[in-house]
Write a structure and sequence with these properties.
UDP N-Acetylglucosamine Acyltransferase, domain 1, seven-stranded parallel beta sheet, nine-stranded mixed beta sheet, mainly beta
């Protein structure tokens, strides 16, 4: 296991010696980090969380208590995974094959969830692979995501649908002075909506 200085691993955590843990990261009680998982710097893995084999996580990610991050998930920098979130990896799940034999690792192909930089996945929500969550998007608590989520989108419900836009601060945007312009009430940053795609205005 690659464990540089300033890594904290609780005694009850189960961390594979084949995992790579970035400097400043913390893995708390009863969490499990599997083989070939790669955690960036300053990540936090909460109590009872699971990080699957070969999962790749950027810097400054937070995986809250009892979240399940199944392989081959890919998380960008600064991704927030709320408590009891599930990132699935099996499009057509079955315990047995058609002939009644138990499925093994060779009988199915895992597919992953990709979450881009700064996005947040709310408590007890589920992302059904394969889906991509765009940069700075927010998935509301309890949502079930079954299709890709655009950058800066706020989605909620079962199945999840876009109900608004959020800025980098996570605060819902408000309509600006002209059509297609959105403003962050927290930072004052402006965003432009074009054909259902939001981009941050540059100065």
């Amino acid at each position: 296991m690659t464990t540089p200085s300033r890594v904290r691993i609780a005694e009850s955590a189960d961390v594979s010696p084949d995992a790579s843990i970035g400097a400043g990261s913390s893995i708390w009680h009863l969490a499990q980090v599997r083989e070939q998982a790669q955690l960036g710097e300053n990540c936090i893995i909460g109590r009872g969380a699971y990080v699957g084999t070969g999962v790749v996580m950027g810097d400054n990610c937070k995986v809250q208590n009892y979240a399940l991050v199944y392989e081959p998930a890919r998380l960008g920098d600064g991704v927030f995974i709320g408590p009891a979130v599930v990132l699935t990896n099996d499009t057509y799940p079955r315990a047995i094959n058609e002939d009644g034999s138990q499925k093994s690792a060779h009988d199915w192909e895992p597919v992953g969830v990709t979450i881009k930089r700064g996005a947040a996945i709310g408590a007890r929500s589920t992302c059904v692979a394969p889906v991509t969550i765009g940069e700075w998007a927010t998935v509301a608590a309890g949502a079930v995501v079954v299709k890709d989520v655009p950058a800066f989108a706020l989605v909620a419900g079962v199945p999840a649908k876009r109900i608004g836009w959020v800025g980098e601060s996570g605060v819902p945007l408000t309509a600006g002075d002209t059509d297609g312009v959105w403003v962050c009430p927290s930072s004052g940053a402006r965003y432009i909506e074009t054909d259902g795609i939001l981009t941050k205005e540059t100065v």
